[in-house]
Amino acid sequence: MEPLAAPYPRSVALSRVGWFVLFALPTAVLVTASQLVPDPAGHGTHTQLGLPPCGFMTVTGIPCPGCGLTTSFSHMVRLEVVEAAAANPFGVPLFLVSFFTIPIAALGFVRGWGVLDTLERLQFEKVAIMLALCSVLTWGTKLVVLLLS
Prior knowledge:
The protein is an all-alpha fold. Helix content is 69%, strand content 0%. It has 7 helices and no strands.
C-alpha cells in the first residue's frame, strides 16, 4: 500500500513558508527603517509611523529596553554605526542579525532547506541567548548611566 502523499514535499513546502516569513519580515523592517528620519533625540523615530510615544518612558521617565531601537535601525541602514549605538547599543547587533537573515532565508527558500535544521546548524539558540543578554546588559547600562547622572 502506497502512502497518499510523500512527507518530503510537504516539509519542503512548509519550510519555504518559513523561509518566506524570515525573508519578508526583516526586509520590511529594514525598508521601513530606510524611509524614516532618525530622531536627533535618540528615540522617538517610531512616532513617524503613527505610533504613540513609549508608554513606559511617559509614565516612569525611564527608557524601556526598546527605546531608541527604531532610531538605531534608521541610523544603521545609513551605515551610521556610532549614532545607532548611541540611540540604543542593542540595535546594532539586532540590525546585523536581521540584515544577515535576509540572504540566508533567500538561500534556504531556493534550496528547500529545512528551517529548523538550518537554524540548528547555525546554532541560532546561541545567537538568541546572546541577543537576550545583550538586550539586558544594554538596558542595565542605560539605567545605571541615567541613575548616576
